[in-house]
């Protein structure tokens, strides 16, 4: 792993250097803005964002662990760091760098894999392709065939990645100072805490195997959702073996026909938004790289290292809040949110809280065609990050309890995925299925309901 910085000092130099350089540039720009015209100040800001985009790509695109995970999120959810003029360049460049990031040599990975499996590869697999098909944040994925003919994906952690992740976690708050260049009031503490807890979970593939197995079993035979089965006998703490799923990347249809994008958007919305209420279980890492477009029209969902369950009481409270929001009951919205700790200490009026609630969730609570774009996602993140106005009155719509930080991030990332697809459809009529137990009104909804009745 000579090309992968693993020591805390080495990784800190990369992450800290990025943050420190940008902090100095930001301070210089703010000073210069005092004597610049508005037009010149905006030009200077654009130039700084362009340079930051280039440095983010260079730094995050070739790192693993926490840094790569954060880079994936930044490429999906633009909070204004890179600016609209650089968004497409940043997303494409970072995706390309991560796709082509240096792989760990097969000679090193083979020994590591055989050590985890407890024996030579040819005693476990009938065939094993030594060229990795993908590089994840903490491991590489290979394609293999079992003796019974099943094609499988073999995910193995990088040797020494645990040390790199621990180094990243200690340096994460340094890297997150980049966020504060754009939103000085943004509290990054909860984000850092959530990253630490979830990355520790992601280091244990046995946890991911349990999540994947649960979701695969719950969707067995589903008409348009595919989740790979787990080969439990070969999976462990650092190795995960699952059924192989063939498919195309989501980005293949970003410029495709509207009808196709609408269909895929509905499937993605149903899975990520509806599953928490159907199964009380959800994925905390919606990302285009975790989705595959299958030839039969189904969508494959991968990577369940970041998952959580929600209890029935929490699920019902959330549904009650959504129903109150749809019904226009501002008082009940605020009351229910306060009962769960989401609006504790807020000084907003009932109407102000309700209006803000609709700004956050209106894209599927309003009975109309959804207006979803990258700009909407940026505005939502900016809204959620605000901590107060000039008069000192709280304008943050919700205080995310510690156990809801991952869920909140997942909801924003879901919206960001949909923004890439730019659907033109009424998502409210779909969401009513789990909010009100309403009958389905779409072709996909009816297919799912028929499947549920057959089970």
Q: Which short descriptors sum up this protein?
A:
5-stranded antiparallel β-sheet; 54% helix; 455 residues; disordered N terminus; 17 helices; 9% strand; globular; alpha+beta; 4-stranded mixed β-sheet; single chain
Polypeptide structure, described:
With 455 residues, this protein is of the alpha+beta class. Among the domains are: 8-100 and 168-183, no CATH class; 309-454, no CATH class. Helices cover 54% and strands 9% of the residues. The strands form 3 sheets. Strands 1, 2, 3, 4 and 6 form a 5-stranded antiparallel β-sheet that branches. A 4-stranded mixed β-sheet has the order 5-10-9-7, covered by helices on one side. β9 and β10 form a beta hairpin. The longest helix has 26 residues, at 8-33. The chain is globular and about 65 Å long.
Overall shape:
globular
Strand content: 5-15%
Q: Which percent range fits the helix content?
A: 40-55%
Count the beta strands: 11
Mean pLDDT: 80
What string, H for helix and E for strand, traces the elements in order?
HHHHHEEEEHHHHEEEHEEEEHHHHHHH
Distance between the termini: 48 Å
Helix/strand structural class: alpha+beta
What does the largest sheet look like?
Answer: 5 strands, antiparallel
Unreliable parts: 1-6, 387-397
Report Rg. 23 Å
Number of helices: 17
Brief sketch in words of this structure:
Helix content is 54%, strand content 9%.
Topology (elements, then pairings):
Blueprint: H1 8-33, H2 38-60, H3 65-76, H4 87-99, H5 106-117, E1 127-128, E2 134-135, E3 139-145, E4 151-157, H6 161-175, H7 177-182, H8 189-202, H9 205-218, E5 225-226, E6 239-243, E7 248-249, H10 258-278, E8 281-283, E9 291-293, E10 299-301, E11 307-309, H11 312-327, H12 330-339, H13 350-365, H14 374-385, H15 405-421, H16 428-435, H17 443-454
Helix pairs in contact: 1-2, 1-6, 2-3, 2-4, 3-4, 6-8, 10-15, 10-16, 11-12, 12-13, 14-15
